[in-house]
Amino acid sequence: MTGTTPQLLIIAAFNGLLLSGIVKSLIPIRKKWWAWALLFSVCYFSVTMIIYIGDWINLVPTVLVFTAGTLICGEGIFLEKLAVSFMTASTLFSVSAICDNYVGLYIPFPYRSLVKTAFLLALFLLARRFAPSKGYRLSPSMWRLLLLLSAAPFATVISVVVIASDFYIDDMHRETCLALLIIALASFLGLLWTTVVLGRQRELELEALFGEMNDRYYRLMEQQSFEIRRLKHDMANHLQAMAAMGEKRGQYIEELLQKEAFRKVFTWSGDDTVNAVMTVKSSVMERDSIKMKASVEIDRELPFKKTDVCAIFANALDNAIEACRQLEPEDRKIILESGTGKGLFVLSVKNPVPPSGEGRKGAGLPATAKEDGRNHGFGLRSIKETAERNGGSMEIKSRDGRFCLLVHMPLPRDDKNVV
User: Fold this and answer.
1) Phi (first) and psi of residue 266, to 5 degrees
2) Residues in domain Sensor histidine kinase NatK-like C-terminal (predicted)?
């Protein structure tokens, strides 16, 4: 920046903070000091770069640096970070091109940085006001859609800057470039609103899933209550029958213990969401002849979103059930252990690895064994995203024919589960 002064450095640093805030409002940033430092450095570099139409020397490397910085510093899946990078880059570089090529004709260089500040401040306030709620989640297909939508304004800005060689000698061409840059800038609002709508839709889908599981859980609870009342009413008759049976008494007791009131266990923990998921999935496992050994030491409600708890337990068990279905009935067994302690929530799910599952990998995660692979296989990715969004992590291991999924998330310091 020729003629740099302390005032210009302060303005540039403020612009870098605004751009960092825009990125942060759209994707979570890694909870590492170096990630925040790198993001600010990349944003500072990007906002101070002068973008002249018809001169690609500055634009191309700046785009690469900004995209790489967003991918490194952001959390979430690759599609998510790339879509946000394209969305933000098209906005930033359209603002820079307008300021450096049009505003610069009327306002001297030291002062047009303030115009860029005004643009970025307005975009920052819009992003803060209308951005999706913190911790929102979109499916990979939704992020793919947003990436395609973001690619259009991104390509428009690149094309205007790189291809427009007649900018300085053709007035009509200059006006056309301005119109295209304004359209690319305005598209940020549409993309932001689309992200909000998709985020709400995804949240409603998860809430509907949770509601359905809760409904099934309470229906089963009601059925159990009815079975207990009926068993209590018939207990006198059962005792009289056993007293007169003699040698067949043992068989009669065995049949009695198979009744619903004795077999079903609904209160797995002190968290209603865990109970709902475990009850529904245990019914599925019983139907598929899958044995489950469960140890759940959670004595109160977990301090996480119910949809997050539901997603973690349901997807973990679905993954194990899917694997067990490929085994012979006598080999189908799932071991689930979960609890809270020492400031952590931990979930461990183990299951045998089917022969077809060995060596199946996808982006570091086991691929789905379902035939409709394009619409399945996102369960583990969902668990990973949920855990990381809550400050935790997911680990997977496959050893000696056994698959192990481990999820751990820190409990809030003010939660009663923290020891």
Assistant:
1) -105, -25
2) 306-410
Higher confidence at residue 83 or residue 356?
83
3-state class (DSSP) for residue 169: coil
Alpha-carbon span 94 to 161, nearest angstrom: 9
CA-to-CA distance for 255 and 250, rounded, in angstroms?
Answer: 9
Q: Is 344 helix (H, G, I), strand (E, B) or coil?
A: strand
Count Cβ atoms below 10 Å from residue 19 Cβ, excluding itself: 25
Full set of structural domains in the chain with CATH: 6-205 (no CATH), 265-419 (3.30.565.10)
Q: Cα-flanking dihedrals φ and ψ of residue 293, to 5°?
A: -110, 115
Residue 10 tokens read as 């302060």
Strands 402-410 and 344-352: antiparallel
* DSSP 8-class letter at 419: -
The amino acid sitting at 118 is A
**Amino acid 244: pLDDT:** 62
Tell me how far the alpha carbon of residue 135 is from its chain's centroid.
8
| DSSP helix/strand/coil, 400 | coil
CB 203 within 8 A of CB 136: yes
Q: How far apart are CA 346 and CA 298, in angstroms?
A: 10
pLDDT in tens, 110-164: 677 888 889 889 989 988 887 776 666 777 888 888 899 999 999 989 888 887 6
pTM beyond cutoff 0.85: no
Measure CA 28 to chain center. Answer: 10
Query: By CB neighbour count within 10 A (0-12 exposed, 13-18 middle, 19+ buried), where does 218 fall?
Result: middle
What is the distance between the alpha carbons of residues 171 and 179, in angstroms, rounded to a whole number?
Answer: 13
Over residues 38-59, the pLDDT tens digits come to 999 999 999 989 888 877 888 8
Radius of gyration of the chain from its Cα atoms, rounded to whole angstroms: 29
DSSP 22-83: HHHHHSPBPSSHHHHHHHHHHHHHHHHS---TT-HHHHHHHHHHHHHHHHHHB-S-HHHHHH
| Sequence-ordered list of residues with C-beta below 8 angstroms from that of 377, at least 6 positions apart, any chain | 362, 365, 367, 368, 370
Using CA atoms, how far apart are residues 378 and 398, in angstroms rounded to an integer? 18
Residue 378 CB partners (closer than 8 Å, separation 6+): 139, 140
- Which residues fall within 8 angstroms of residue 191, CB to CB, at 6 or more apart? 87, 146, 149, 150, 153
